[in-house]
Amino acid sequence: MSTQDIAAIVIAIATAINVIVTIGLAIATYQTALVAKKNSRADILLRLDEAFLHHEDVREKLADGGDWHRKKNDPNFPKGPNFNLSEDLIAVSSYMGLFERIQQLIDAGIVDIDAVDGWYGDRLFNIVINPTIKDRLVTHKSGWSDFIKLWRALERRRAVSKRWLPKGRPLPDELFPQS
Description:
With 179 residues, the chain is mainly α. The protein has helices spanning 3-53, 56-62, 87-107, 113-128, 131-139, 145-161.
């Protein structure tokens, strides 16, 4: 065997080893990315749960049996164009803002609508069955597009799955443009 033949064999072996190592690194990188994505999703969900804990008082007031459920007592929302923000309005708006973030997580593919419905669906429905909050959504619908988008998606999902929906449509049709 000539020196050239030996060199060709060494180069072929080195190339094969390089290909195997490259494939191994690609697989390891892919697996690391999958683990990182799962960890990131878990971290986001834990942070979301923590954020909801800060609004437990609002959730309790809106829940069945709570002070604001189906307008037993209303949240204190000031009226008129030159009002000062009330504590109730700030608390409810902040709570609803979490649902807007959830819609953004759905849009980004981080969470899916089925999981959201299981975790937070009833909370959203308890918000929209309150007439004072519904009126505020109608008045300021352009500022709540992600909230309304999530509500619409949950309503469609529950209609198909025959899961509990509030009687009647709590939000008026003008909040549900045809798409």
